[in-house]
Specification:
Elements (H helix, E strand, L loop, with lengths): L4 H4 L5 H19 L10 H104 L5 H4 L5 H16 L7 H27 L3 H11 L5 H15 L8 H19 L3 H25 L13 H24 L5 H41 L7 H9 L15 H20 L3 H34 L4 H5 L9 H23 L14 H38 L3 H5 L3 H6 L3 H26 L5 H25 L5 H8 L2 H9 L6
Helix pairs in contact: 2-3, 3-6, 5-6, 6-7, 6-8, 8-10, 9-10, 9-11, 10-12, 11-12, 11-14, 12-14, 12-15, 13-15, 14-15, 14-17, 15-17, 15-18, 17-18, 17-21, 18-21, 18-22, 21-22, 21-24
């Protein structure tokens, strides 16, 4: 017979159970018939075992079904009982809630009655209290009218000090409501007692401060807070002691202060009721007294002079380094301190350097101007050149061959880079020290003026003017030429274009403010741009005028060469030489013209590479070609007589002349 637990096991397997039944039936058959073979299968026995098993399983199923029905009935009864209990609990909860609400309403009603009763009692007691206080104030005031109030009875014990301070405070309030002219004696006695008490408390605070007695300092600081001169009597003494712990001459001033910040904050918090205001007062005096003195000593500037003194480049660089160090110090204090007001700290930093702003722009401009003047002096001295003023230039132009110069050597090269580098350093310093746009615009405009004066007026325009005045231009000068023209002017034009490009790049990246990149210092760019464009236009006019004079110079030299040619040069040539080669004059002209064209191409190629006007080469060669063509036609007309006509036309058609005319970009036919 099987039990229910046999089939409820988690390891129960139906197939294994059937196999066990079959094995059991076979085993029983083998034992009952000893003569039967082991391999013989008894189906009747197997059927009997399986039938009996099925019967047992059905009986077990009926038994389990009956038990299940019984348990279901029990569960239904328990559920019904629990639901009845829950309903009963809900009824009890509702009754308790109603009772609690009723109790709360009763409590509120009683509270209202108690408050009303308290107000009535207070209204009754307040007049009595006020009358008592008024009587006491009148008595004390009357005492002050007769003589100084005897403070000894309050000062015998430290615990009486708060009461005496409170009395003096009330007397001051009473006195402020009265006409002092009628109570002069009382007013004098009250003020005398008030000042005496303030001095006494300040003295006690000073003693406690010297002894580093934090508890006593806190007690006296609270009492001194009731007096008008609280900051001078208490806070100032405390800050004085803190500042005396810092050495103005220390090379590691900022690190020394930072190391003390935590202990200073904890001490301020332990002594004063408003530690934030005291700590910010400490920082204010630290900046304007200690740090300021430290900077003045390092810069070699006296505070008596108001720091409105001229500074050297080294001093300006040192001032800029101080700005970086102070900014780093402020950042570290902001991160390390819990009492600091970041807005106030930044305002202190600006105020610290604001005393230098008044003379800073002037100093920067003076330093840059001196630097440029030194470069100019050294540059011209190295070339043994004495600069000429306007009158000397005019005189120089009237005597073009009295002096000769290596003109390209007089144009700045590395000097421009040095000046622009110095300007960038100046802008870098200014971006740190100047905060208002007005100051930055002022400095930027003045920097632009110095740049234009030092690079253009002092050098480039001067050299262009020197060349222009030194180039023969009058009819008599051009007619009396004695030496071949110099061919270096277009190299100077190329160098001028490079200088203009460098200056424009500096303006774009360093002077003029760019909101997208944040570079530059000049936000109001009207004046700065106007000055730059005017100066560039002046340079352009000088270059164009010089080109015109130079081409006229070259044309006059060609005429000079042609002037030596006459009919005899052709008459001395036979027909074969005329047809196969140019005359000496033609060869001389071609060599000169080709050298001019080569120099124009070579010297102005760099200008086009730098983004200059690529059409300038063509324009110059076109003008030169027109002049050359005019000279050539004049020479043809001059020699257009028989029998040399054929001979000169042969010169005209020679390969060298045709090639030069094609390179000059002039459409000859």
């Amino acid at each position: 017979m099987y039990d229910q637990s046999d089939f409820e096991s988690p390891t129960f397997d139906v197939t294994l159970f059937v196999d066990q039944l079959v094995e059991k039936s076979l085993s029983a058959g083998a034992l009952s018939s000893s003569s039967a073979s082991q391999d013989e299968f008894d189906s009747a026995k197997l059927y009997s075992v399986l039938s009996q098993t099925m019967t047992d399983l059905e009986d077990l199923n009926d038994k389990m079904q009956s038990e299940l029905t019984k348990q279901q009935n029990i569960s239904r009864q328990e559920i019904q009982d629990q639901m009845e209990r829950v309903a009963d609990l809900e009824n009890q909860h509702h009754r308790c809630s109603d009772a609690f609400s009723k109790l709360e309403e009763d409590i509120m009603e009683i509270s209202k009655k108690l408050v009303s009763l308290g107000d009535q009692l207070e209204n009754i007691s307040q007049p009595h209290t006020r009358i008592s206080e008024a009587k006491l104030l009148i008595a004390n005031f009357n005492q002050f009218m007769r003589s100084s109030f005897p403070k000894e009875k309050f000062l015998d014990e430290e615990s009486m000090l708060p009461e005496y301070v409170d009395l003096l405070t009330k007397m001051k309030l009473v006195l402020s409501e009265l006409d002092e002219s009628k109570f002069q004696s009382a007013a004098g006695n009250i003020r005398s007692a008030h000042n005496a008490m303030e001095s006494l408390l300040a003295e006690k605070f000073s003693v406690a401060l010297s002894g580093n007695d934090t508890t006593s300092m806190s007690k006296y600081a609270k009492l001194l807070a009731r007096f008008e001169c609280y900051s001078q009597s208490c806070v100032a003494l405390f800050i004085d002691q803190l500042l005396n712990q810092v050495s103005v001459e220390s090379e590691h001033l900022f690190d020394d202060i930072l190391s003390k910040i935590p202990s200073i904050e904890s001490k301020i918090q332990a002594v004063f009721e408003e530690p934030e205001s005291v700590f910010n007062a400490y920082l204010n005096r630290l900046f304007l007294e200690v740090v300021q003195q430290h900077m003045d000593k390092a810069l070699g500037v006296s505070s008596v002079e108001g720091r409105n003194v001229s500074m050297t480049k080294q001093q300006l660089e040192l001032l800029s380094s101080f700005e970086v160090r102070v900014q780093r110090f402020c950042d570290r204090v902001s991160a390390k301190s819990v009492l600091v007001n970041k807005t106030s700290l930044n305002a202190l930093r600006l105020k610290l350097f604001s005393v230098f702003v008044g003379c800073y722009v002037t100093n920067e401009i003076n330093v840059l101007t001196s630097f440029c003047r030194e470069i100019s002096t050294n540059f011209y001295s190295a070339r043994n050149h004495v600069k000429k003023n306007a009158q000397q230039l005019k005189a120089f132009g009237r005597k073009p061959f009295s002096e000769t110069f290596d003109y390209p050597a007089l144009v700045y090269k590395d000097e421009v880079a040095k000046i622009l580098k110095e300007v960038k350093s100046c802008v870098t310093r200014a971006s740190k020290l100047l905060n208002s746009n007005a100051d930055k615009n002022d400095l930027g405009n003045k920097l632009g003026d110095v740049i234009l004066s030092a690079i253009f007026d002092d050098n480039l325009i001067y050299v262009l003017s020197l060349i222009s005045e030194g180039t023969p231009s009058t009819a008599s000068d051009l007619r009396d030429l004695k030496s071949e023209p110099f061919l270096t002017y277009f190299a100077i034009v190329s160098r001028a274009s490079s200088i203009v490009a460098e200056v424009n790049q500096l303006y774009k990246t360093c002077i003029l403010h760019n909101p997208a990149t944040g570079t530059g210092i000049v936000t109001s760019q009207g004046y700065c741009e106007e000055q730059r464009m005017n100066k560039l236009a002046e340079v352009e006019n000088c270059i164009n005028g010089g080109i015109e004079k130079t081409l006229n110079f070259y044309s006059a030299w060609i005429r000079k060469i042609y002037a030596n040619q006459n009919l005899k040069e052709f008459q001395q040539m036979d027909d074969e030489s005329i047809m196969h080669g140019p005359t000496n004059t033609c060869r001389h002209v071609c060599v000169f013209v080709e050298s001019v064209i080569d120099r124009v191409h070579k010297d102005l190629k760099q200008q086009s590479a730098l983004g200059g006007n690529s059409c300038r080469v063509s324009e110059i060669l076109l003008q030169f070609g027109l002049k050359f063509h005019s000279n050539l036609l004049n020479q043809i007309q001059k020699l257009q007589v028989s029998p040399t006509t054929v001979a000169f036309r042969s010169q005209w058609t020679c390969p060298n002349t045709r090639r030069l005319l094609s390179r000059s970009t002039l459409p000859f036919s």
